[in-house]
Amino acid sequence: MAVFFATYGSLIVAMLLAAMLALSLYLPLLAGQLSLASPGFYALGGYVAAIISTRVVPFDSGAQAYIWRMGTHEVARFSGPLYPVSLLIVEMLVAGVLSAVLAIVLGLPALRLRGIYLLLATIAFVQILQVVTQVLDLTGGAIGIFNIPQPFASQLGYAWVVVPLLLLSAGFVYRLERIRIGRAFTAIREDELAAAAMGINLAYHKVLAFTMGAVLAGIVGVISAHSINTWNSRQGTFDAGITYLAFVLIGGSRTFLGPIIGGIVLYALPEVLRGLAAIPGLPLALAQLLKDGRLIMYGLLLVLGTIFFPQGLIRPNLFRHRTVEATPRKIEQQ
Amino acid sequence: MFAVGYTLIFSILRIINFAHAAIFTLGAYFTYALTGSAFGYNGLLKNSALPIHLPFLLAAVVGAMLAGLVAIVIERLAFRPLRNRGADPLLSLVSSLGVAVVIVNVIQYLVGAENYSYPAQPYGNLPTAINFGLGSQRIPVRTVQIVIFGVSVVIMLLLTYWLNRTKTGKALRAIAEDATTASLLGINTDQLILLTFFLSGMVGGLSGALIGSSVSIAGPYFGISFGLRGLAVIVLGGLGDIPGAIVGGVVLGLAEAFVPVQYIAYKDAVAFAVLFLMLLLRPQGLLGRAELQKV
Amino acid sequence: MRRIVARLSPLLVIGTWLLMACGAPTSSTTGTGATTSSTSSDTTTPATMTTTGGGATASSATTTEGGTTTNSATTTGGTTALSGDPVPLGVAVAETSNTAALGQEQVIGVTIAEKYFNDHGGINGRPLKIIRQDTAGDENGAINAFNALINQSKVLGIVGPTLSQQAFAADKIADTAKVPVVGPSNTAKGIPQIGPYVARVSAPVAVVAPNAVKAALKQNPQIKKVAVLFAQNDAFSKSETGTFQQTITKTAGLQLLPVQTFQTTDTDFTSQATSVLNQNPDLVIISGLAVDGGNLVKQLRELGYKGLIIGGNGFNTPNIYPVCKAQCDGLLIAQAYSYELVTPVNTDFRKSYQDLQKREPGQLAAQAFAGVQVFVEAMREVDKATPLKGLSVEAARTAINDQLLKGKYQTPLGPISFTPEGEVIQNDFYVAQVKMNADGATGKFVLLK
User: Helix or strand or coil: residue B75?
Assistant: First the structure.
């Protein structure tokens, strides 16, 4: 068991983070908004964490403490080699607020677009952010920022933050789907025109859904930066966004459980194939195939997954024993 | 050029096909194999070569056909089942992503990840660049780029003619309007969509071969790096607009060329900023007319 | 679907069979005198590039080396049969993703190293066993590969990962677990400082930069204006260009034109090339990687640039030939490895590489070889003092790390050693000029003295 957790501690944390990223994509989708902006906010959150923990409150090896100085004045001091969890939470708050502000500024004009156009606009945002962080000195250029301090002694320690956060956000979305705002989201997704006719404020609700997704992605970025020790412009790219979208669609885009399960399962898949290859006693041929061909299999499973589970793995009526099939959803293309 | 193939599928089916980038790569590799060049040092097909040695241009055409065939296979396996189930068009995006992952990794498994290039001087003894500038202010343009541009314009003209003037083209546009009604009117939608995929694959494969002749094949991820840019181009030109795809490409190229040298680090950001503004201001594209919202 | 599977499956079967053949345990083989040679190279039978086990007989790596005594510094006897439990060493490089072009060179390097050292006595009689895990191109992939090697395979050390950015993520994991890591290609500043268990064999600072500029000045003393370009998304290129720029302005006193950047993923360099041309430089210096850098050279030449071009260390691979072809000719390249170095170990390495790959070795493979070599020699020393067999995995890892940093090594890169921090000390750097053959497809690096 100890070996299992030592081997897979970081994977488990990364899996849960992936589930939350999928959830952050799912939130705008609730209101019918197909956005791939999450990776951008994720990157932003990571940079917030990296800059605060290495530049604003750097570790002073002489004093064995993290010291926040303004000029020569010492504002705060946190002793010990481990990064204080309280600061981690502060970073999450800062990243959340920054993401929210940026999301509102970006969302107000962009959310007038629909379907594929919105998708492309958000991709453009992610790309611009990537180039800018790659050039700026503040963000460490191509190398990025490294030696990000660890708040926990082991990778699995992150579970203390990640699990509650996942439960919290899942609970939040579960609740959201059942209150007035959530119903307004659904109304907009099903028929924007009818929703507007019923007096639902389209712009407000769309930006709200978009912003909630952005805040979640930003917070996940903070944790991720600490857990992988380093942050650079290769994090949170367009490709990553497409992968999150796959999490949502394969998992199921009609209930909050879909993206969570999709994120966990799909993120772990290549690693499970790797792990299978290491099982002792497996015929060598099979082991090699699992190891070298794992990405080929991953791709095949994506194709098969969409064909055999067009509604996603998790459907809303899965647990309710209803026979009514969910109606296929159509995204407005115009 | 790359964008034309993309656009073709999008205009008919309203799907973004990520596998297109992989087909582009395949076209380049097929052409390479058909010129009889040996496959490198790594992968399963190490040091092997086809016994035939086609001249580059012929190889590019045959390679494009093969790429078209692959596109047909992809349509049958990854897109038609989804269409028949009336699934969310977004799903085909994921499915095409899966196909792209498979193709890229199979290429690497077979022939390794290194870069390849076609035999020297695929276009014979043309000068390497032509100077369009005057006096000391040189504006040289590489011959390869002129060839690529010329071929794309020709393909664009052919496709536009075909879509607007021929019976098949009209049937295709009917499918684009409304597939169900089109099939009720006796149009064989499946077959025509297959044809669309074949043509789009061919154009993609051909552009892979031509661009490969300009900058060498950079490995299995060759096409993927063009994918995003291709998307930007078709948006600039107006999604689903074939002449627009060419205009979009030219505009994007010019916008990048006018970035001052000091700020060239931000070149890619400029391209996407243009794209972003374009979406906000003229989502119908440079040449497009505003479409009526369907209610 | 079925048809595709049916068509692909023979290939997969052949592939896995071959891999199996190479990956088989070494108990039945003596590890020397490779019996088959794959000279019939244009059949579809792939020669075995992915050897994972020790000294497989089917490997085409060394067809002639056999038991003849190669008087390498590390020889402990040519043909002794290896016995006992294999000593596990992990290799975690990017075998997939768009970084795979670098990773597969490293795989070749470690494969040759594994066979070479097992042919030369292994770890004092016990075979060395390389265990590979793919990191792909991202940070999480590197972390997962490291974790699998450390906790599941219980390796005594790790050579990897490929990219500096990955190293910042994964090396920390190894350092915390007290597992020695040697970076084969991580050149960014700050890697050895990650912790006491992190070292590298890839020289960080471009010590060669001044030499390359000197060589250019020797060929054309009239140089006044210099244009500098670099790949902004590549960590090494970015630090290398700094050294180049300093050399030009401070040491050589030349005029530096506005610096331009590109991306390693770029293919069209028309705007950069045109702008360079219009400033009429006498020398162009490019820091980038093989494909992007090669394309930039090609496009500069095609658009009419006639002067000298210096390519940074990223150009030091035969992979540039297919990119710029005839236009590579005359290119000056700063090298941290030259295959022309005549030392016993490099001669053997070069020969193995040529037999396996039918071309000259590049820097990445040589550095990966050196990465394995420092581990092997450290393991031998530790084993001599206290047999590794008697040590716990943890104690062995620590002892190997201590020994590794103390030793001096005769590698294909030339003699190297480490600072106490784990930074490599390398003395031999080179400047070479590319000479393309008449066919425009192949060429060679000619060393400049």
Answer: helix
- Closest alpha carbon within chain C to B41: C357
Tell me: the pLDDT tens digits for A276-330?
A: 877 777 777 777 777 777 888 888 988 998 888 888 888 776 655 444 444 444 4
Distance, in Å, from the CA atom of B76 to the CA atom of C202, rounded to the nearest integer, reads 49
Query: pLDDT value at position C52?
Result: 36
Write the CB contacts of A241 (distance below 8 Å, at least 6 apart in sequence).
A25, A36, A37, A38, A39, A122, A123, A126
Query: Does residue C173 contact residue C147 with C-beta atoms inside 8 Å?
Result: yes
CA distance A204 to A214: 15
Helices (H), C256-392: 270-278, 290-302, 321-324, 344-357, 363-385
Question: What are the two backbone dihedrals, phi and then psi, of residue B268, each rounded to the nearest 5 degrees?
Answer: -65, -35
| pLDDT at A294 (0 to 100) | 81
Q: Inter-chain contact C144–A293, Cβ cutoff 8 Å?
A: no
β C430-436/C443-448 pair status: antiparallel
**pLDDT per residue over A52-66, tens digit each?**
999 999 998 888 889
Containing B215, the helix (H) or strand (E) segment is helix B189-215
Q: Name every residue whose Cβ is closer than 8 Å to that of residue C400 and which is 6 or more positions away in sequence.
A: C156, C157, C180, C375, C378, C379, C382
Provide mean pLDDT across the span A238-253: 89
Question: Which residues on B lie below 8 Å from C100 (Cβ)?
Answer: 108, 113, 219-220
Average pLDDT score over chain C: 82
Do A310 and B92 contact (CB within 8 A), yes or no? no
Q: How far apart are CA C296 and CA C284, in angstroms?
A: 11
- Nearest CA-CA partner of C252 in C297, C283, C275, C229: C283
Centroid of chain to Cα C160: 10
Chain segment C124-178, per-residue pLDDT in tens: 999 999 999 999 889 999 999 999 999 989 999 999 899 999 999 999 999 999 9
Asked if A10 lies within 8 A of C20 by C-beta distance, the reply is: no
The stretch B194-218 carries a mean pLDDT of: 87
- What's the CATH fold of domain C207-335+430-447? Rossmann fold (3.40.50)
Ordered by start, the domain boundaries in chain C are 17-48+80-203+342-418, 207-335+430-447
- The CA-based dihedral angle spanning residues C242, C245, C246, C250, taken in that order and rounded to the nearest 10 degrees: -170
* Residues in chain C whose Cβ is within 8 Å of chain A: 12-13, 15-17, 19-20, 23-24, 50, 95-96, 133-134, 136, 138-140, 143-144, 147-148, 150-153, 164-165, 168-169, 172-173, 177, 188-190, 194, 232-235, 237-238
Res. B3: pLDDT tops 80: no
C236 with B111: CB under 8 angstroms?
no
> Considering only CB atoms, which chain B residues are within 8 Å of C9?
none
**C448 Cα to chain A: minimum distance (Å):** 32
CB-CB under 8 Å, B128 with C274: no
Q: A91 CA to chain B: closest CA distance, Å?
A: 27
Dist. CA B234–CA B240, nearest whole Å = 7
Q: Flag whether the ipTM exceeds 0.95.
A: no
- A229 in Cβ contact with C172 (< 8 Å): yes
Distance, in Å, from the CA atom of B249 to the CA atom of B57, rounded to the nearest integer, reads 24
Specify whether the CB–CB gap between C325 and C440 falls below 8 A.
yes
- b/e burial code for range B50-75 (CB count within 10 A of at least 16 → b): beeebebeebbbbbbbbbbbbbeebb
Class of C17-48+80-203+342-418 per CATH?
A: alpha beta
| Structural domain spans, chain A | 8-237
Question: In whole angstroms, what is the distance from residue C155 CA to residue C162 CA?
Answer: 18
Percent of chain C with pLDDT over 90: 55
Note the pLDDT of residue C80.
53
Tell me the whole-structure pTM to 2 decimals. 0.86
Q: Judge if C17-48+80-203+342-418 and C207-335+430-447 fold alike in CATH terms.
A: yes
